[in-house]
Here is the input.
Amino acid sequence: MNIEIVTPDTVIFEGEASLVQLPGIDGSFEILNNHAPLISVLKAGTIKIILADKNTKTFDIKGGVVEINHNKLMILAE
Here is the structure.
């Protein structure tokens, strides 16, 4: 799936991933390839991304919103 993480200042990540772990307001959740369409609010925490090459990246956020549709994941984060 294609992932883009955007802050008010810049795009901090763009790339392909096989799994994304997110800090939802009701608890952590994961998104895999071919996930159903979803919009959710994020709380302060860490985004963990497992890249297509099996490497891991993490990003700390203060909150935000995530949308997934047609294998495109967009995270608007603070």
